Amino acid sequence: MRPMRNKMVKCRNLKLGVGRPKIAVPITGHTMADILAAVPAIKAAQPDLVEWRIDFYDAVMDPVKLQQTGQQLRAVLGDIALLTTFRTSGEGGNLALTEAAYFDICATALAGGYTDALDLERYHDETAVKRLVAQAHQQNVVVIMSNHDFEQTPAQSDIVQRLASMVDWGADIAKMAVMPQSAADVLTLLAATNEAQQTLTQPVITMAMGDLGKVSRLAGEVFGSCLSFATVGAASAPGQISVERLRPILDELTLNN
Ligand SMILES: O=C1C[C@@](O)(C(=O)O)C[C@@H](O)[C@@H]1O
Question: What is the pTM of this model?
Fold first, then answer.
């Protein structure tokens, strides 16, 4: 029997949470030229969504440049959905920032009017996170709330509780990445995904990182993760495989009944 799926979330022309898992490709360029130059090869690979990792962008602290680059990226992407993510250094990102600067950058990205979705890390000040959720929703921007544990894999109940708390705080989609140290850890992540997708009202995105966790990036259809990050060129996290290799595996694992 096909597993039960949660509510669908629309992001531009994408329906997340229904049908097969969608494919996201990160852009990790440091300059506007690098960022825009990555687009033709990405478009040729036909991902469902592009993630702009603004923590890699040299001018991320300059609001005007951030918005202009975002708008140019939006224009060249055509109709591909765009997710903007600032990953803080505590969660595996590229740049250390004060809390205030993190929230300012997220607000600047939203005010730029170019993004279809925003990644918001769950483990920051509650009032500030909820204020950004409200701002995003006013602008019809999808909130993907996230948490990354680059050291280990929390217990199943802890992972589910973290995902549930994201939904409580207004996330449209709840995302959790863990670092497995054993095959048992990968099973824990998959079991937590299965439980969360059956019990939460919103879709979830999960992954176990590194080589041990690769299987979790392939198996979203079965366990209930609605988006898998894959590469065209540079990876943004350990264990990502190329879009070219991922797509036929997702096709193969499609549930037809
Ligand atoms: O949250 C995620 C997931 C990710 O960490 C991964 O493991 O594929 C890659 C990040 O770019 C993205 O923001």
Answer: 0.97
Residue 1: the pLDDT is 54
CA distances from 68 to 76, 143, 195 (A): 12, 21, 41
How far apart CA 235 and CA 203 sit, in angstroms, is 24
Distances (CA, A) of 177 to 4, 15, 56, 206, 257: 22, 22, 19, 6, 29
Ligand 1 shell residues, CB under 6 Å: 26, 51, 53, 85, 87, 119, 146, 148, 175, 177, 207, 209, 229, 236-237, 240
Question: Which residue of the set 43, 137, 148, 214 is catalytic?
Answer: 148
What is the amino acid identity at position 211? D
Looking at the domain 9-249, which fold is it?
TIM Barrel (3.20.20)
ipTM of the complex: 0.98
The two structure tokens encoding residue 106: 């997220």
CA 5 to ligand 1 center in whole angstroms: 22
Q: How many CA atoms lie within 13 A of 208 on its CB side?
A: 28
Locate the domains of the chain by residue range.
9-249
* 116-143 confidence digits (pLDDT tens): 999 999 999 999 999 999 999 999 999 9
* Nearest in space to 5 (alpha carbons), one of 249, 223, 257, 254: 223
